[in-house]
Design brief:
- About 10% of the residues lie in helices and about 50% in strands.
- By secondary structure, the chain is mostly beta strands.
- A hairpin with a 2-residue loop joins strand 3 and strand 4.
- The longest helix is centred in the N-terminal third of the chain and has 17 residues.
């Protein structure tokens, strides 16, 4: 009986020790867009049910290239935070723009292809690991 309890405790400790949360770096970036980039759409972030996010999301166009700029951005920290361009306020039909680079500042994310911004009208900050929405912005 004691061996079973000890084995269980050891197994539990091993599992807990191997679970690591890789949080987004708590740094502030100041990435700058091309000075010839034209704003296509803009939105203001609102908090989601699992985090707090503030700032602006802006779609910029330089020639035939699009990028997302997060301006005066701030987010609570969490593991596996991703930036999505989404058709809905929750991530069902979305384009993954990559890992959140930092929890604050001005950040740029390239948008591949030519998405229809009348369809993809939300920018989401989402924790992929736990499926938690930290914040969203409606692009207009």
């Amino acid at each position: 009986m004691k061996k079973t309890v000890l084995l269980f405790v050891f197994s539990l400790l091993l599992v807990l020790a191997s679970c690591k949360k890789n949080n987004t770096p708590p740094i502030v970036l100041n990435e700058m867009a091309d000075s010839t980039a034209l704003p296509v759409q803009t939105g203001v972030f609102s908090n989601g049910p699992y985090g707090s996010v503030s700032g602006q999301a802006r779609i910029l166009q330089t020639g035939s290239v699009y990028e997302l700029k997060l301006m005066n951005f701030s987010s609570s920290n969490g593991p596996d935070l991703r930036v999505y361009l989404s058709k809905e306020m929750f991530p069902v039909n979305f384009i993954d723009l990559g890992a959140l680079k930092a929890t604050g500042g001005n950040q740029l994310y390239p948008i591949s292809g030519m998405p229809d911004f009348t369809q993809y009208k939300y920018v989401l900050v989402h924790c992929r690991q736990y499926n938690h929405l930290f914040g969203w912005a409606l692009l207009q």
